[in-house]
Amino acid sequence: MQSEFFAKYLSNVPVLAVVASSLLLTAFILINWAFPDILSFTQ
Description:
Layout (H helix, E strand, L loop, with lengths): L1 H9 L2 H22 L9
Protein name: Photosystem I reaction center subunit IX
GO cellular component, one term: photosystem I
Keywords: Membrane, Thylakoid, Transmembrane, Transmembrane helix
């Protein structure tokens, strides 16, 4: 019952979009914090 509700909740497109964008933003921030030279496009 709980897993079915969880799967149905994750299958919603807006929820999936929010989760994906937050994960991408977190990964971007972590990479930028760990390796600041990789994402610097000005050089």
